[in-house]
Design brief:
This protein folds into 3 domains: 206 residues, Rossmann fold, CATH 3.40.50.1100; 92 residues, 3-Layer(aba) Sandwich (Rossmann fold); 77 residues, ACT domain (Alpha-Beta Plaits). 46% of the residues lie in helices and 19% in strands. It has a 6-stranded mixed β-sheet, sandwiched between helices. By secondary structure, the chain is of the alpha/beta class.
């Protein structure tokens, strides 16, 4: 049986080198200043399929026999492994079928089909889809390419660590998102073989903490859907867990709100489109910032395939949290000129009116009053506070969503 070893990872890198991108490791200048650490980002969102998964998928495809290539392959994935298999299978002339959970973001389905795969939607999650995929593979004689429970796939993912330590040999720690464990198992084996003292820290979504539970001996906390759907795995590979127990220094988790904030931080501070999984990695760094002080830290931006509709909502919510978009609610006398005065004061304060809702008919205010909602664009929470104070001094009864 094939074992995940440093030698296998080195050989795998030689095999996939010409058909994968040597992605950059870049300093996160703004985030480093904000957090007070030396943070560097490994941009796997710039891989061919905008995610690291194409490394392991290619590694596995290159080991198939001619008969297996002729018959075709099948995979089960929430999106990134699917695209990696589809892209490289089509490039190599191999037919591919991908089973995806029914809730998979539309952009991942479309991209997988565009890469040449036949897509079948089945089940509500990755774990619900696996057995269906295995049955279909047996029925049609297809080779099943597992997204993480395969040492060759994990070896492909481990090549990320080889590159990072060539690009920055003085890294003190690497933070790696964890779903099924293939990425962190491969990276931990590779990194520890080159630099035994380096810290490898796993990052999980709090509501999909199967690996953390297995390693740290606590109950799992599965609950609902995660923004980090790429690492929302209930049943990680036991082989990967065994490696994690011996090669990974610790595993931390992040809430959905923290992951959302971190994805927004990557976009607003570093101008990087990242999905929820790397957001979990940044959230874990922020949650444990004292542990990273004085260290050079690498974070794997493992994918950028976030649904555009979801991203647009996330951006707006982030702007609201920062106070840059705020709703002001007024109780005003229903007389001419009130809206004009409010707009003038807001404009003179340097803010912009985005939307106005003038409510007379509902019974939340008295008959001779009206409720006015004004959505404004401001610099930050402090600016909003300045504006509301000015309005109150001018005699307006106003409240802000931000609570100032």
């Amino acid at each position: 049986m094939t074992q995940l070893t440093p030698d296998l990872i080195e050989k795998t890198r030689d095999a996939i080198r010409d058909a994968t991108i040597l992605t950059p490791l870049v300093p996160a200048t703004r985030l480093s200043l904000q957090l007070g650490i030396d943070l560097h980002l490994k941009l796997e969102n710039r891989q061919h399929t905008n995610a690291f998964k194409s490394r392991g998928a290619l590694a596995k495809l290159l080991t198939l026999s001619d008969a297996q290539k002729q018959a075709g392959v099948i995979a089960c994935s929430a999106g990134n492994h699917a695209q990696g298999v589809a892209y490289h299978a089509t490039r190599l002339g191999i037919a591919s079928t991908i089973v995806m959970p029914e809730g998979t973001p539309f952009n991942k389905i479309k991209n997988t089909e565009n890469f040449g795969a036949k897509v079948i939607l089945h089940g509500s999650s990755f774990d619900d889809s696996v057995q269906f995929t295995l049955d279909l593979a047996a029925k049609d004689g297809l080779t099943f390419i597992h997204p993480f429970d395969d040492p060759i796939v994990a070896a492909g993912q481990g090549t990320v660590a080889l590159e990072m330590l060539e690009q920055a040999p003085d890294l003190d720690a690497i933070v790696v998102p964890i779903g099924g464990g293939g990425l962190i198992a491969g990276m931990a084996v590779a990194a520890k073989s080159l630099k035994p003292e380096i810290e490898i820290i796993g990052a999980q979504a709090e509501i999909f903490d199967a690996v953390s539970a297995a390693v740290n001996g606590h109950d799992t906390h599965f609950a609902g859907a995660s923004l980090a759907e790429g690492i929302a795995v209930r049943a990680p590979a036991q082989a990967n867990i065994d490696i994690i127990k011996t090669h990974v220094d610790r595993i931390d988790t992040a809430t959905e709100a923290q992951i959302e904030d971190a994805v927004f931080d990557l976009l607003s501070a570093e101008k990087l489109v990242a999905e929820g999984a790397p957001g979990a990695g940044l959230a874990v760094i922020k949650n444990n910032i004292d542990r990273f002080k004085g260290k050079k830290v690498g974070l794997v931006i493992c994918g950028g395939n976030i649904d555009s509709r979801l991203l647009s909502t996330l951006i707006l919510r982030g702007l609201v949290r920062d106070g840059r978009i705020t709703r002001l609610t007024f109780e005003i006398d229903d007389t001419p000129g009130q809206l004009a005065d409010i707009s003038r004061i807001i404009g003179e304060a340097g803010a912009n009116v985005v939307e106005v809702i003038h409510q007379r008919m509902m019974q939340s205010v008295s008959l001779k009053q009206a409720e006015l909602e004004v959505v404004i664009e401001a610099r930050d929470i402090g600016h909003v506070k300045q504006i509301t104070n000015t309005l109150r001094v001018q005699g307006f009864r106003v409240t802000a969503d931000s609570g100032v």
